[in-house]
Write a structure and sequence with these properties.
- The chain has three domains: 53 residues; 50 residues, no CATH class; 62 residues, no CATH class.
- Helix content is 54%, strand content 0%.
- It is built from nine helices and no strands.
- The protein starts with a helix and ends in an 18-residue tail after the last helix.
Length: 178
């Protein structure tokens, strides 16, 4: 006989622990297969599942990485909401911390942002004042023109390709006084 209440409690706990929406039904099968038999076992089972079944909690595809990029790098609130619903509060906060400084190096390869692309025309690699590290007025004008031409989301992707973000006044890697 199925224990629907235990299944529901386990699904809620798994979602709170950051389980992917696509993997939530796997926890239902854990109850059906008698891997877990009581509500008291839920916290221990969640931790065990993180070790034994990491695919239930991990970013699975380039689509997921692109959603994180839209949510955290491009500051798209709709993408943030979709990601939150898909991965749960805990995993959402982990991903938010991971993407706090732009696209992580491990994800740039997946998104083909730092491969062998030619960035010679990228305005976020434009002229800077060598003393302050600040972009010159001409470079900022080129950046704004590009934003108007292609839109903020595509312009943010172009900026992220060289480690910068829209609105940055200083070149990537500058460590001087701001």
């Amino acid at each position: 006989m199925r224990n629907f209440r235990l299944e529901a409690e386990l699904k809620i706990a798994a979602t709170a622990a950051g389980c992917l929406e696509s993997a939530i039904d796997d926890f239902e099968l854990d109850v059906i297969d008698h891997r877990i038999t009581s509500a008291a076992e839920i916290p221990a089972w969640i931790e065990k599942a993180k070790e034994q079944f990491p695919h239930r909690f991990a970013i699975q595809s380039d689509y997921d990485a692109e959603m994180c990029q839209r949510a955290f790098v491009f500051k798209n609130l709709t993408a943030e909401m979709q990601l939150y619903k898909a991965v749960g509060e805990q995993r959402f906060n982990e991903l938010k911390a991971l993407y706090a400084n732009g696209v992580p190096a491990s994800e740039k390869k997946k998104l083909k942002l730092n491969g062998s692309a030619d960035h010679k025309d990228n305005p976020w690699l434009g002229e800077t004042n060598p003393k302050t590290g600040r972009y010159t007025d001409a470079t900022i004008t080129k950046q704004m023109s590009l934003v108007r031409a292609v839109g903020p989301e595509k312009a943010a992707a172009i900026a992220a390709a060289v480690g910068s973000r829209l609105g940055d006044l200083y070149a990537p890697g500058f460590k001087g006084v701001r």
